[in-house]
Amino acid sequence: MAPGKAKQGSGGRNLMANSRMKRSMAPRFWPIPRKRFRFVVPPAPGAHPRLQSFSLLRLITDIFHLSNTSRETRAALGKGRVMVDGVVRKDRGLSVGLMDVVQFPDLDKNYRIVPTTGSGLKAIEIPKEEQGLKLCRVKSKTTIRGGKIQLGFHDGRSVIIERETDLSPGDSCVMDVPKQKISKTARFEKGGLVIVTRGSKAGLLGEIIEVKPGSFSKGSVVRVSIDGAETDLPKDILLLVGKEKPMVTVSLEPGTESK
């Protein structure tokens, strides 16, 4: 291979193209120095969009401050000291995003990734009894061979159900991970409690007042009451978290930022 030429994959894809990111291009909610170094390890393609997630390395080093260098982080990952959604993870570039549960068994600490003001994400500590509970938004629902139902979720996972279910795209459920067993469900309808995932109101909780159907060129819009004031927001930036109160820990009360 010629010096300086990136290795090509079978389809001509540059295998090095996504291996690093300029720090100046990193999401603003990443608490990293922007000028000290030029590049940073980005999240690998996976369950969450690159600009709406952390790489596991950045999460451990810059959010939890559990290591000082990338070498220390890689060593800890190699020893299986970090779990995401109940599974030991060793890939430093693993994409960790909305509602993922991060566990440190040696420290007896558990965290959930939630939206926060400024269109970003942050980790909040959660009770031990919630370490195996993952809040998932239904993205797709299809009927497969044998009349079974396959549900697809916002984090890329899917579950096959033996019989018909009332769950539809936009609805949410609490899943026991890593067993992938649905334990609670909630419908995206009037009276439901949602959290704003992006935009200037990210991290705020509110109650659904009305769901306005979309059109061919425009998505659904939802009228939401946040802290006593009603506002219209795109449905795709709202995550249903329960009815009257959240099914898992995401915040304190309607109208407050996630804590």
Instruction: Output the CATH topology of the largest domain.
Output: Structural Genomics Hypothetical 15.5 Kd Protein In mrcA-pckA Intergenic Region, Chain A
Could you give the count of β-strands?
Answer: 20
Assembly type of the chains comes to single chain
**Helical residue percent?**
under 10%
What form results from the Cα inertia axes? globular
Look at the structure and name the CATH superfamily of the largest domain.
RNA-binding S4 domain
Average pLDDT figure: 84
Task: Give an overview in words.
It is a single chain. This protein has three domains: 7-97, RNA-binding S4 domain (Structural Genomics Hypothetical 15.5 Kd Protein In mrcA-pckA Intergenic Region, Chain A); 133-186, Beta Barrel (OB fold (Dihydrolipoamide Acetyltransferase, E2P)); 192-246, SH3 type barrels (Roll). The chain is globular and about 50 Å long. The protein is built from two helices and 20 strands. The termini are far apart. By secondary structure, it is mainly beta. The strands form five sheets. A six-stranded antiparallel beta sheet has the order 18-17-16-15-19-20, with no helix packed on it.
Please outline what is shown here.
This protein is mainly beta. The chain has helices at 56-63, 70-78, and strands spanning 21-22, 39-40, 53-55, 83-84, 87-88, 95-97, 101-104, 109-116, 120-125, 133-143, 149-153, 158-161, 172-176, 181-186, 192-196, 205-212, 221-226, 229-234, 238-243, 245-246.
